[in-house]
Amino acid sequence: MGKSLRVAYGEALVKLGQKNKKVVALDADLAHATMSATFAENFPDRFFNMGIAEGNMMCVAAGFAHTGFIPFASTFALFGAGRAYEEIRNSIAYTNANVKFGLSHSGLSVGEDGGSHQSIEDIALMRVMPNMTVFVPCDPLEVEKAVFAAAEIEGPVYIRVARPVCDVITTSETPFIPGKANVLKDGSDVCIIAMGLMVPIALQASKMLEAEGISAAVVNMHTIKPIDTKTILEMNEKCKGIVTAEEHSVIGGLGSAVSEVLAGHKGAKFARVGIQDKFGKSGKPEELFKAYGLTAENIVASCKETLA
């Protein structure tokens, strides 16, 4: 049964809040969009609407962290990673404050909200900061695991939350170990390393390649920082090429992180499927994914070009 990742985020916050009384939630007047409103309904005394003041919210979150609480700050990814960048950098990452960011409406899948609200650079901004952990869950079950994993990490954690309803492609038994990718499908010709909403599309591409006699592995890179260097290098040894797939700019995101690992390793053949240095625009998510090449067909084409 499918569920929106933002709904899964709100529900996971409630479950965590029931188990851990130190968890508090902050939002920038978007609680019914980020779904932190679910936490507010259950724990009104532990929820704080900071208004449309993202920078202030991050500083308040830092204050909560320094006094022993575990704050989860939520807003749209663009407003959190973008507008509040300096506060996150200096008040949270610089001091290694124990703040968690559940930033929703990431990537192109915000759809009709248009390019002004589509964060195509949030991972680049967050992963460049020292002390920051970056999670990009692919389905509702991974969102819950990411929320609970974030609470166990001492220091800032960014959880990238998407808006659309997603199918469940993992199970409750699927491990979620920060910094350790999950190999969803093994293969020997090409390896598709994907994150978030691109994981099911990568699995679809893998089936299409198999139908043409090409053995394609699929790796769910749910943690972008720290990146799983070991799995990337193992796949580079085993396969003839690696293709990354992300709903983010190819500059600074998953493709960049994987290429940084591969750099200097002899014989690495590599390609990136993602947003090619362009801003988003208004349209239905499925139309935008097609327009920007975030499709199984484009992954297949990139894999074939890489192997050629």
Give a verbal description of the structure.
The chain is an alpha/beta fold. The chain has 13 helices and 14 strands. It has a seven-stranded mixed sheet with strand order 3-2-4-5-7-6-12, sandwiched between helices. A five-stranded mixed sheet has the order 9-11-10-13-14, with helices on both faces. Strands 1-8 form a two-stranded antiparallel sheet. Helix 1 packs parallel to helix 8 (140-152), helix 4 (54-66) runs parallel beside helix 6 and helix 9 packs across helix 13 (296-307). The protein is globular. It starts with a strand and ends with a helix. The mean pLDDT is 96.
Topology summary:
Blueprint: E1 3-4, H1 5-19, E2 23-27, H2 31-34, H3 37-42, E3 47-49, H4 54-66, E4 70-76, H5 77-83, H6 85-93, E5 100-104, H7 122-127, E6 133-135, H8 140-152, E7 157-160, E8 165-166, E9 182-185, E10 190-194, H9 198-211, E11 216-220, E12 223-225, H10 229-238, E13 241-249, H11 254-262, E14 270-275, H12 285-291, H13 296-307
Parallel strand pairs: 2-3, 2-4, 4-5, 5-7, 6-7, 10-11, 10-13, 13-14
Antiparallel strand pairs: 1-8, 6-12, 9-11
